[in-house]
């Protein structure tokens, strides 16, 4: 038996022009207006959150990133061996 899905209600007063616009867009996509609006709102919310995360992370890590570019850490021995192995493979081709 499938688990019950928890839902919440959202109400908004919109102009008749916007209502007509949403209704037409939904009809063009062969969807109900409710489905169209929920999908559009969900996409907008996800986009807003992704944009906020990108900006926040880039600001928080900006100094660390710049420092790594200006003073890169010494290569690990395994990385040096990988470069040597790669060079040998490229020469043999």
Automatic annotation (TrEMBL):
Alphabetically sorted, this entry's keywords are:
Toxin-antitoxin system
InterPro entries the UniProt entry points to: Ribbon_hlx_hlx (IPR010985), TacA_1-like (IPR014795)
What Pfam families would the database entry show? TacA1
Indicate the transmembrane segments per the record. Answer: none
Q: Which SUPFAM superfamilies match?
A: Ribbon-helix-helix
Which family does the record claim for this protein? Answer: Belongs to the TacA antitoxin family.
* Annotated protein name in UniProt: DUF1778 domain-containing protein
């Amino acid at each position: 038996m499938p688990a019950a899905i928890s839902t919440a209600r959202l109400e908004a007063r919109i102009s008749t022009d916007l209502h007509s616009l949403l209704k037409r867009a939904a009809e063009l996509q062969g969807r109900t207006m409710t489905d169209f609006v929920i999908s559009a709102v969900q996409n907008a919310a996800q986009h807003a959150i992704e944009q906020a995360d990108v900006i926040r992370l880039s600001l928080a890590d900006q100094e660390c990133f710049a420092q790594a570019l200006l003073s890169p850490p010494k290569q690990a021995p395994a990385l040096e061996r990988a470069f040597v192995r790669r060079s040998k493979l490229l020469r043999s081709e």
